[in-house]
Design goal:
Layout lengths: L2 H13 L3 E2 L14 E2 L2 H9 L2 H5 L3 E3 L6 H10 L3 E4 L7 E4 L9 H5 L1 H7 L1 E3 L1 H7 L4 E4 L3 E3 L4 E2 L5 H11 L9 E4 L5 E2 L14 E3 L4 E3 L17 H6 L1 H9 L4
Parallel strand pairs: 3-4, 3-7, 7-10, 8-11, 10-12
Antiparallel strand pairs: 1-2, 4-5, 5-6, 8-9, 12-13
């Protein structure tokens, strides 16, 4: 069993005590990064960051623990892009004024995002400019910024696409929102594909990471299966843009 899988499974055992069940996947952490007790306090720490307050165009993952952050961004009129579940339907864009007052919470849920968010292509995102703030959930994250997802590699794919197009790079602030039980206290050696985060927000603390390495760049096309390419519209779009397919 790989080290990352061991870390995930160890954390998942602790997470069951603080996670809020998902309506579809319950506590199946291999399919969903759940909301957790105290996520509002973790969100408070994120929204207090100068990088958040100065942000004009952000990318947010569809993780359940980020519902409150998405709600606040909608209420504040901060535009953002969010991936759909599994990136199966690409990306959605929420622009200021697109959500009626009072519907912010519904719009922040995945089903609500499907209603209020506008499908957006990579080409359209590129015309809008770079992301100046990125937030993701995680199954686990080490104190030195090594993040573990569900094991499907969706954020890795998103990061690869965005860096390929110059929408994000080593200087883009990346924040991970997790419960305290999801923080791995020991330092881990990042692999060449690990996307290191700059800040970790939990219900009780804010951890600033001193990065020791560079983040990867671009899509690792050789690692993609034909099924992955076929089921991910933005990957097909990027491959076409790059003359790969």
């Amino acid at each position: 069993m790989s080290n990352s899988k061991l870390v995930r499974e160890r954390i998942w055992g602790k997470l069951k005590g603080v996670a809020k069940p998902d309506t579809r996947f319950h506590l199946n952490f291999g399919e969903v990064i759940p909301d957790f007790e105290g996520s509002e306090a973790a969100t408070d720490r994120i929204t207090a960051l100068p990088e958040y307050q100065a942000s004009k165009f952000a990318f947010i993952t569809p993780d359940n623990c980020l519902v409150e952050l998405r709600r606040r961004m909608i209420a504040e009129g901060k535009p953002f892009v969010m991936s759909t579940y599994g990136i199966f339907r690409g990306f959605l864009y929420v622009e200021p004024g697109s959500v009626p007052k009072g519907a912010e919470l519904y719009a922040a849920w995945l089903d609500g995002m499907e209603h209020f968010g506008r499908p957006i292509t990579l080409e359209e995102i590129t015309k809008m400019g770079r992301f100046d703030f990125m937030v993701t959930g995680a199954s686990a994250v080490s104190v030195d910024g090594v993040r573990f997802g569900k094991g499907h590699g969706f954020f890795d794919l998103e990061w690869g696409m965005f860096t390929d197009l110059g929408l994000a790079d080593d200087n883009t602030p990346v924040v991970a929102a997790v419960h305290d039980v999801q923080v791995v206290e020991e330092k881990l050696h990042p692999s060449e594909t690990d996307i290191l985060v700059d800040t970790i927000a939990t219900p009780t603390r804010l951890i600033t990471v001193e990065r020791r390495g560079r983040r990867p760049r671009g899509v690792k096309w050789e690692l993609l299966s034909p099924e992955q390419l076929q089921s991910t519209p933005p990957l097909r779009e990027l491959a076409h843009m790059r003359g790969i397919a």
